[in-house]
Each structure stands twice: as C-alpha cells, then as structure tokens.
C-alpha cells in the first residue's frame, strides 16, 4: 500500500467525509497489474485514479416498485460518472458522484457543431442474482472508433469498463430483480471548449448515466409497420452512418413523424437507385427466407459501405446463426425489388430488427412508396405466423445468456 498512497496522497487527503472514505476503500482494491501498467493520461483516464463521492441519505432516490412498467429513459439511478479532458493535460481523474446537472458554457462545441457521441448498453441481474454486463467490450470498441471519427479524445476500453463496474456496484440496487428488465447504461462524450468556429475540440467531457428499463414487450411480441420511402435517406457512403453520433438521430425524427402519420411505427431506411435496405428505425435489419438458389438463408445488409451502424446485437445474432449451422448466414446488399419478389413467391418468412433495447423486433407490414407510380403499396410480412421460429429462437437464446440461464463464454462481464 505505501507505493499506492504516495502516488495519490496529495489528492486523496484533500478529500473529506464520505468522499475520503470511499477513496480510501477504493485504494484497498487496486490490483497490482493496474499499478504496473503504463501511465499516460494523454492516452486514457485510469480506474486507479477514480474518485467516488457517496450520496447522502437525502440524495438517494426511491426505487421503482414495479420496474416492468418503467418507460425507457424516464428514470435514473443514483450515480453518474464524469471525466474531463483537455488537449494540454489529457484526461483528468474520473469521478463517480450523485447524479446532477452538468455545467456547460453556451459556446460549447457540442451545442453548435454536434461534437458528440454516445453508446447504449445494459446490465442484467441474472437468475443467480449476479449482475453482469452484456459484451461491454463491443460497445467500447465502437465508442472508440466513433471518438476518432468525431475528432474527440481516445481512451482505453478496459479502463472504462472497470469504471463502469464500480458504478454498477454502487447502483446495484437499481438493477431490477426481473428477467424482463435491466439497467440501461448511456456513456457519452461531448466537446465542451467554449469557442465558436468549426474545429477540433480542445476540451471534452465523458459522462455516464444509467437507469432501469422495463420490459420492451410487456404483452408479448408486437409486430411493427414500416414506412419505406427512398426519398428519405439516413446515411450515405463516406458519411457517419456507421458511427453512434447524435447527428445521425436528430434528422430522422421528422421522418418518424411522417411514418406515424401513416400508421407506421418505424422507418425502413432505403438507399440509392436500387432502394437497398439499410436499417429499420434505429435497429439493424434481418430477413429469413429461401433464396433464389433454394437455400434457407438468414440475410442482413453488409457494413462495408459505411451506411449501417455495426450493432452489438447484430454481431451476436450473426455469430449464433453461424454456430447453429441450420441455414446459410449471409451479409450482402439486398433491395426492395428482391423483397417484393420473395413475397410474391412466398419464400420470405420472417423480417425483424435487432438492437439493444428489444433484442429483436418483428416486422408485420411495410408501407412502400413506389417511386415509379408515386403511390403507396402495402406489403404484408408473415413473421408472426412463420413456422421456422428463427426470430423467436434468437430472442430466447440472447435473453437466456443475458440473465444467466445459458453460459456463453466471453459474452457476459461479471461485476
């Protein structure tokens, strides 16, 4: 312990009360491998530098009695994590403290030029009462790629996961004791330097908020209707459609309202003259069909054009499908004419979205704008009556892994 205390003593002993006790307790648990690692705050923040300010009795909120009824994003846990960065010093010490408002200058880059990115991930309380995160290294790898594309500071994935683990330990009572609910985690990175003018941020802030979320399907699977209209485009080659940035989402809100006005719950995003399928709402899209060669096939659009966010659930479904070996698994471009042809020939059996919030979401209908006739066509997808049950098997398997009923090596991270 003397070596650790001498390194952080000036910071630690300036703290008082609960913060001092939490920091001292934290020092007791620093693994030797953390101490021996390279230390360069220009490259990352460090778990070993974590400061924890415990909430007082008046700051702890009442836990929801029935988490299954919670609306997504309306309830927050007790703690948040923040960590500042500046170009001169690099990363500052990460802090976990009671959740509160952020103070930000009105000239901050994020408010004017969308210098921002985020992640969405979950922690689950298993049937054995252990709390685990689902494939957090995948989220962190994507967040790091997005940070580079957004000209925001890089960081070390494992350091971030270690800090998230500490948050979960503090907020463990907020992880619902339910096998249909979870704790949603929203890591976010924003440019904060108060200077107008498009350019690289010289100051930034990483923060993480969390909150319990209820069952996505409270009454079983509900098929969605999609508006497919190639006049609306989500992403294009060379753009940032493959990165989880807020600037990808704001322009879709109005299109979503247009879809709702036509009794559709989501948008099927098309691209190009051939009307290639890309995403559905904020999810990746999958089809299960018999292809024109007569093979049973699970198919999803590819990532190489940069039009599609590389979803963690998408990757998980592809990996499981290939492991099972029950059908062909393909990543390739497909378009609306192929979908219409397969429906007409009765060889399109299932269509579904995939994402963190729902795992899978069945598609029941597409309202397709025919650009030649300028009229809308209704295409009915037989997902809910499919005898193959591909979507259902994916849902059951992912759900069982997340709640500890199935052990999948390397997919769950214990806290």
Automatic annotation (TrEMBL):
* Catalyzed chemical reaction(s): L-valine + 2-oxoglutarate = 3-methyl-2-oxobutanoate + L-glutamate; L-isoleucine + 2-oxoglutarate = (S)-3-methyl-2-oxopentanoate + L-glutamate; L-leucine + 2-oxoglutarate = 4-methyl-2-oxopentanoate + L-glutamate
Top enzyme class, one word, equals transferase
One GO BP annotation of this record: L-valine biosynthetic process
Q: Does the keyword Amino-acid biosynthesis apply?
A: yes
| Keyword line | Amino-acid biosynthesis, Aminotransferase, Branched-chain amino acid biosynthesis, Pyridoxal phosphate, Transferase
Q: Which Gene3D superfamilies match?
A: 3.30.470.10, D-amino Acid Aminotransferase, subunit A, domain 2 (3.20.10.10)
The answer to whether keyword Thylakoid applies is: no
Instruction: Kindly indicate where the leader peptide sits in this chain.
Output: none
Q: Which cofactor does it need?
A: pyridoxal 5'-phosphate
Q: Which residues carry this modification: N6-(pyridoxal phosphate)lysine?
A: 244
The catalytic activity of this protein is classed by the Enzyme Commission as: 2.6.1.42
One GO term in the molecular function aspect is:
L-leucine-2-oxoglutarate transaminase activity
An annotated GO cellular component of this protein is: mitochondrion
Top-level taxon of origin? Eukaryota
Q: CDD domains, alphabetically?
A: BCAT_beta_family
NCBIfam families named in the record: ilvE_II, PRK13357.1
The family classification in the record reads:
Belongs to the class-IV pyridoxal-phosphate-dependent aminotransferase family.
- This protein is called what? Branched-chain-amino-acid aminotransferase
What is the source species? Answer: Caenorhabditis tropicalis
Its organism's taxonomic lineage begins at:
Eukaryota, Metazoa, Ecdysozoa, Nematoda, Chromadorea
């Amino acid at each position: 312990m003397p070596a650790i205390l001498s390194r952080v003593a000036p910071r630690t002993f300036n703290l008082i009360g609960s913060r001092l006790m939490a920091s001292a307790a934290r020092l007791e648990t620093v693994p030797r491998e953390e101490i021996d690692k390279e230390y360069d705050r220009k490259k990352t923040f460090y778990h070993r530098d974590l400061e924890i300010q415990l909430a007082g009795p008046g700051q702890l909120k009442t836990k929801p009695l029935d988490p299954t009824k919670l609306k997504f994003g309306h309830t927050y846990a007790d703690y948040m994590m923040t960590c500042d960065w500046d170009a001169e010093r690099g990363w500052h010490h990460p802090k976990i403290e009671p959740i509160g408002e952020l103070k930000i200058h009105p000239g901050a880059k994020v408010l004017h030029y969308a210098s921002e990115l985020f992640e969405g991930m979950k922690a689950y309380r298993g049937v054995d009462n252990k709390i685990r995160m689902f494939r957090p290294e995948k989220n962190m790898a994507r967040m790091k790629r997005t940070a580079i594309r957004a000209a925001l500071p890089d960081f070390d994935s494992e350091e971030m996961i270690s800090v998230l683990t500490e948050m979960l330990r503090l907020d463990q009572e907020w992880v619902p004791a339910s096998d249909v609910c979870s704790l949603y985690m929203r890591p976010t990175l924003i440019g904060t330097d108060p200077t107008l003018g498009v350019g690289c941020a010289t100051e930034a802030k990483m923060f993480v908020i969390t909150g319990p979320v209820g069952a996505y399907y409270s009454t079983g699977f509900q098929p969605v209707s999609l508006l497919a209209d190639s006049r609306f485009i989500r992403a294009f080659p060379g753009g940032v459609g493959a990165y989880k940035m807020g600037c990808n989402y704001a322009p879709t809100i109005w299109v979503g309202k247009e879809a709702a006005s036509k009794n559709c719950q989501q948008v099927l995003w098309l691209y190009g003259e051939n009307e290639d399928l890309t995403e559905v709402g904020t999810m990746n899209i999958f089809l299960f069909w018999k292809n024109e060669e007569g093979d049973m096939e699970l198919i999803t659009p590819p990532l190489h054009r940069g039009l599609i966010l590389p979803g963690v659930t998408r990757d998980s479904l592809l990996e499981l499908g290939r492991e099972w070996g029950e059908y062909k698994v393909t990543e390739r471009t497909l378009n609306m004419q192929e979908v219409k042809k397969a429906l007409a020939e009765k060889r399109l059996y299932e269509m579904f979205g995939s994402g963190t919030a729902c795992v899978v979401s069945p598609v029941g209908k597409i309202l397709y704008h025919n650009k030649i006739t300028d009229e809308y066509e209704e295409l009915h997808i037989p997902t809910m009556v499919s005898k193959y049950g591909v979507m259902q098997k994916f849902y059951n398997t992912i759900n069982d892994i997340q709640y500890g009923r199935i052990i999948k090596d390397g997919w769950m991270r214990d806290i």
